[in-house]
Each structure stands twice: as structure tokens, then as C-alpha cells.
Amino acid sequence: MGKVEEFAELRPLLFSIAYRMLGSVSEAEDAVQETWLRFEAGPTQPRSTKSFLSAVVTRISIDVLRSARVRREEYIGPWLPEPLLADPYEDPARSAELADSVSTAALLLLERLSPLERAVFVLREVFDFGFPEIASTVGRSQDACRQLAVRARQHMSAGRPRFEADRKEREELAGRFFGALREGDVDGLQQLLAADVSMVGDAGGKAPQLARAITGAEKVARLLAAVFPAMARIDVTTEPHAINGRPGAIFRDRNGKVLHTLGLDLLDGQIQTIRLVLNPDKLGHVGPVADAWTVSHELKESRRPAE
């Protein structure tokens, strides 16, 4: 098998490592491409192509993450990961870990870790790499990597929900949510929302956004019931779609261009968090991006009383 074929076979794994490290589809794709360039330029064949490429993409991701953290400190408004529509890597033996680790909630917890802690956690807990490989990848001793893994697990465990609905329950609850959303049913929405539900939007200053996170079932239900049926009247469509392995939707303008994504976090049979990604820079991989400012203007005009 040649280099091209070997790399193509491992590409899903490399992307999945990079995305969990960076929380960005575009940056993960760039990291994978840089990994290929280094692999292609190498004069010798590594003993284990998988170990070599995984180490390279992890090191690149660590460097990118360090510089990205500076940019994120200057980010306008809340920062959310780029929405992932499907994880290209599959491993039946670790399907639960893979699914959990790509959720938006898990990625936000990973943001609390240092770049090295994040790398060790992703390689060890998600992809089951051995400590000798991890130590070689991050340039630390095996004992140091074990300590990093323990700290990372503690941070991640402290922030995890006590109970999350299974897939069937999530899909059923999401179906009821989007039905109530279409109808503008305030009471129906409020019944599905946790009392302390939070709705947050990431526009990065490049699209209309919430002035702040909205909290509380009544406030969130009333806002949803007012805005989303009005959006439907100007031909904005809702396309149910998994977002980071959890129920969600892609919203498109009348021309089919992507306006934003919406993802749901479910806990104890209720919706705990609603996250909207509106920043056009984070939506290009989903499809052609709509002009959110134009749609916002149309929405305001549609809600203005007739003279």
C-alpha cells in the first residue's frame, strides 16, 4: 500500500483527533492537510504509519490550540465549537466514548484543559492510545502523561451531567420540541424546557446575535415562540439534523443557504441548553452561507404592524 492509500485510510481518525483537540472543522482539516504534507515529504517510511500520523496531527493541533486560545480571549461574545454534522471515524469497540467526546458539552469541557491535558485525554480516553505512544507524541515521560490524564479526567468528570437521555428518548423529545417551535406553542415549549434552561448564541460579531444568554423556561419559550414562526413566514426552513451527535437542526433561508445551526443538550428528560452557531465563519463547511443581516432585516419588516 502506497502513502496516498495509507493516508486516505487513516484520514478519518486524524480528522477526529484534530477536531476534538480544536473544536473547529476548518482548523482540523488544515491540521490534517499539514500532516499529509509532512508525511509525503518524509524520506523514510515510519515503522507504524498510524502512530506516526496520529503523533504529527496531535502536535500540530497543540500548536494551533495554543495560538487559538489567544484569539478566543478576544472573541466577541460566547465561543462555541464549529458544528459537526457527522464524525468520519468509527470504532464499534469505542462507539460510546466517541459519541460522548464529540458533543458540544464535552468539547466545551475540553476547553478548560491545558493543550497537553487535552491531547493526553483525547488520545487516551477517546482513542485508547497507550502511554508509550502518548509520551512520545507530547514529549513528556509516561509518568507525567499519567498525571496529566488523571487531572484531565477529574476536570471532565466534574463537569459532566448526572444523567443524559438515551438516543431514542433524545430523538422523541427533540421531535416534540421542533413541533412546538413550528407552532409557536409557548406552553408546549415550556413543558419541554428545564426550569434553568439556557439559550446561547455564537455570532462572533459577524451576524445578529443574542445580547446575552437567555435563561429560564418561560423567557426562552416566549422568545422561541415569537421568533421562529416569524422566521418561517419569511421562508426560513428548519432541517432537523444531528449536531455534534445530539439532536439539532440547520436553518436555511429561502434560497437554501445556511443561516445558523441549533443544537440541544438534554438532561433528565428535559432540554437543558440550546446553542445556536450563527457566525458565518463557522458554517461554510455546512453549505453556502446566508446573509444573516438581510434575513434579520426581513424578519423585522415582517413583524412591523401594517400601516
Could you explain how this protein is built, in words?
With about 300 residues, this protein is of the alpha+beta class. It folds into two domains: about 160 residues, Butyryl-CoA Dehydrogenase, subunit A, domain 3 (Up-down Bundle); about 140 residues, Nuclear Transport Factor 2, Chain: A (Roll), CATH 3.10.450.50. Strands 2-1-6-5-4-3 form a six-stranded mixed β-sheet. Strand 4 and strand 5 form a beta hairpin. The model has no long low-confidence stretch (mean pLDDT about 90).
Q: What would CATH call the homologous superfamily of the largest domain?
A: PhyR, sigma-like (SL) domain
Order of SSEs, N→C? HHHHHHHHHHEEHEEEEH
In the CATH scheme, the class of the largest domain would be Mainly Alpha
Report the mean per-residue pLDDT as an integer: 92
Rg is 21 Å
Shape: globular
Give unreliable regions as ranges: none
The percent of residues in helical segments reads 40-55%
The CATH architecture name of the largest domain reads Up-down Bundle
Strand content: 5-15%
Pfam families: Sigma70_r2 (PF04542), Sigma70_r4_2 (PF08281)
Keywords: Sigma factor, Transcription, Transcription regulation
Subunit structure: Interacts transiently with the RNA polymerase catalytic core formed by RpoA, RpoB, RpoC and RpoZ (2 alpha, 1 beta, 1 beta' and 1 omega subunit) to form the RNA polymerase holoenzyme that can initiate transcription.
GO molecular function: DNA binding; sigma factor activity
